[in-house]
Amino acid sequence: MLMSLELVPLARQVDVALRKLEDELRGLSAGTIVLQIRNDVIGKFGIRHLPLDCEDRGTAGEKQAGMTAAQVESLRRMAIEALNHKRSWTHGEISYDFVLRQGKVYLSVQFESNYNMANLMFRLHPKGRDRRDAVNE
Fold this sequence. Notes:
Elements: H1 10-20, H2 22-25, E1 30-38, E2 41-48, H3 69-82, E3 92-101, E4 104-113, H4 117-120, H5 131-135
Helix pairs in contact: 1-3
């Protein structure tokens, strides 16, 4: 039996998304993980990054700098913990900026809530009712 994503806690969804990105995260030294949220469900997710440290890498035979599997695991745990600061909004975006410095992962988070004014406006005629029904009242 499949469970609806709406029933899966956001923390579990973040865990699954970051596990899916693990291979891409390994080897990166900086970037931004972006999660787009609608009704507390992750829709799209991915990584934005620029190879800013290319000049510092030396010769082609030298081992490339970037996160290890253990550092990616640390980033994932910090990202899930950061959700404790999310409040009641259900639509928006979460951005995790990460950087690897001296072998340690640093993470900052930005929450962006989005609201749709059309959902908040008072409706003169409720959906699903024919205008003739409203006139006969």
